[in-house]
Design a protein that fits this description.
Layout: H1 2-27, H2 35-46, H3 55-90, H4 102-115, H5 128-149, H6 156-181, H7 184-194, H8 203-221, H9 224-231, H10 234-239, H11 244-266, H12 272-284, H13 288-312, H14 321-338
Length: 344
């Protein structure tokens, strides 16, 4: 009975923490808004009420802060989902969404766009960076898949090695372009992009990441049996009748698409897809039926909270979010890994 009640209680608790985190993160900023006023405005908007709310607060919350907080929710949940799937696919506790060279491919695409005239690219100036970064990430993932499956069946070892090769090649190409063509302003812009940021979040930029993350999460929630089998190793999966090669390719393609979209939207935000699945696994065990849901909730809470810290810890200065995901995430990861009762 306790086991049956534990998971619903955990999910309910995390959902309540998620709602509380949204309110707190929307309230903090250069202009601090009382949290009760924040929830009044949010409830007023959701229920289409016509309450007597402060118009200044309402404008700040609905037009500036809430889109950013919702983007943090979507990005955090999406990266955590990708991390869970990647760790199952390659049976490696160090696997994360960027294992396939996706971050380096996006880095190369962003570098090309910024240095070769992207800042004055006319109609593409608003969305061009995201498009080119996404195409670079997708191209890198495609190259990894091709290399890992070339002349033989794809294995976890070949996949990891291929990801390392393509990642190194993309990073070297991007650094070469910067070395021969970079200026102080372009190098600064590229550096900030590689450390990740949610500062450009708007309602219109939230739609695609939200829809893709939602569709992918629904799909992977139906795939917990193959993922459980994969985590036990290829031989176990084959014995259970799982077409390991088909599912591995399918899952990798979906993860690559989702990660590419997330990276192109907010830059490279590391550590979320690496540490969150481990924290969730310590809470729920390795069964993906519950692990996926808990990981996505934790990922959303984590990234929203870290983003709030990054934009408020120093007055009138916004620091890259990737710095804080590492600073906050590393101690958590260390604690989880040294726990005596934890086993990947």
């Amino acid at each position: 009975m306790k086991r049956k009640l534990r998971l619903p209680l955990l999910i309910t608790s995390l959902s309540m923490i998620l709602i509380l985190t949204i309110g707190v993160c929307v309230s903090v900023g250069t202009m601090k808004i009382p949290i009760l006023e924040t929830y009044t405005i949010l409830i007023d908007k959701v229920l289409f009420l016509d309450s007597n709310v402060n118009p200044t607060y309402s404008g700040i919350i609905l037009k500036i802060r809430l889109p950013r907080v919702m983007m943090g929710l979507v990005i955090g949940a999406g990266l955590a989902l990708c991390g869970v799937v990647m760790q199952a696919i390659v049976q490696n506790p160090l696997a994360d969404p960027f294992l396939l060279g996706i971050s380096s491919g996006g880095y190369l695409g962003a570098t090309i766009f910024i240095i070769l005239g992207g800042t004055t690219a006319g109609i593409l100036s608003g969305v061009g960076l995201s498009i080119i970064a996404f195409l670079g990430a997708l191209a890198a993932a495609s190259a990894v898949l091709f290399l890992a499956a070339y002349k033989s069946k794809m294995t976890t070892t070949k996949l990891i090695l291929s990801g390392t090769i393509i990642s190194a090649a993309c990073s070297a190409a991007a650094n070469f372009i910067i070395a021969i063509s970079g200026t102080e302003s372009t190098i600064t812009r590229i550096t900030y992009w590689t450390m990740g940021s949610l500062s450009s979040s708007k309602w219109e930029s939230l739609l695609i990441p939200f829809l893709v993350t939602l569709i992918c999460s629904i799909f992977f929630l139906t795939q917990y049996r193959p993922l459980n089998a994969m985590l036990q190793g290829d031989e176990t999966a084959i014995t259970l009748g799982i077409n390991i090669h088909f599912y591995r390719k399918l899952y990798i393609i979906i993860v690559a698409l989702l990660t590419g979209i997330l990276v192109s939207t907010c830059g490279i935000i590391g550590f979320v897809g690496l540490i969150i699945p481990h924290i969730a696994r310590a809470l729920t065990g390795a069964n993906h039926r519950s692990l996926i849901t808990v990981s996505m909730l934790l990922g959303a809470i984590f990234l929203m909270g870290v983003d709030a810290i990054a934009r408020t810890i120093i007055e009138n200065v916004e620091l890259p979010i990737g710095i804080f995901t590492a600073l906050v995430g590393a101690p958590f990861f260390a604690y989880i890994m040294i726990r005596k009762n934890y086993n990947f």
